[in-house]
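Continuing the batch. This is chain 6 of the set; chains 1 through 5 are on the previous pages. Same settings as before, nothing changed between runs. Recording input and output for traceability.
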Amino acid sequence: MNERVFSFRWDIDHRACITDGLPKILDVCDELGVKNTFFVNMGRSTNLREWLGKGLRGSRAKLNDMEAVHLIKKIGWARFGLETLLSRPVGRSLIKPLEELQNRGHELGLHGGSDHVIWSRRFAQLSAEEIEADVARTLETYTRYFGKPAGFTSPGFKHDERTSRLVEKLGFKYDGDALGGEPHHPTFDGKPGKHWTIPVTLCGPRTIPLIEWHGARGVCEDEIVADVMRRMADERWVVLYGHPCYEGVRAGLLRRILRAVQEAGFKFLTHLQMAERLYAGT
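Output for chain 6:
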């Protein structure tokens, strides 16, 4: 691929991603004439049992993490408590804004199954049968509203051969379950699959989005933009990711980054457009 290409991937984990972040993202994208890719969690985003049960230690660790911005810091205790008590499904309870996203030319894909917290925290304990049944049900609901998605991503990048096998079985064109490296065919059952894996190429430590990582440490906007562009300087294939309830509500910073990417000569593609180029061998 000779030209330099860039894709911004958004993970819509929580309702605040849609209500708070999505309108600002769409306005910036319209202003700059670019399209992004959004993966929507159709299930619930919080789980009271996980917070108060065996998962309490993990919850405390997240609150004390100085390199990431916890959901409570993003939306406040009141909204977090309300969503935890109501346990409303994210995508399924906010259909119209997501339909508007598609109508404006952006790509929408599926993000996990019916419970974001269970997948993120206890993925290794789930059986292949549980994962498949959960994703199949969630995909059916997604398709009823938005049509069949081309792409799938796992919550928290928690994936293994079971998810790769399932993505193939359910007919997705690609998954986004990788950090770093080149696009590739995932391996399962001892051989490469047919679908593509499109990795996030710019990320902070662990799975923390790069912009969020800088923000958690109090880095100023000028330095954030400079670091993003410095990391992209010698790259021709770039995928940056974030969450609409954090990076999306910072419209000014988002605008500066996307404009700088344009000025550096990158062509904006959705993940589906990237996948189509991979399938075509271009």
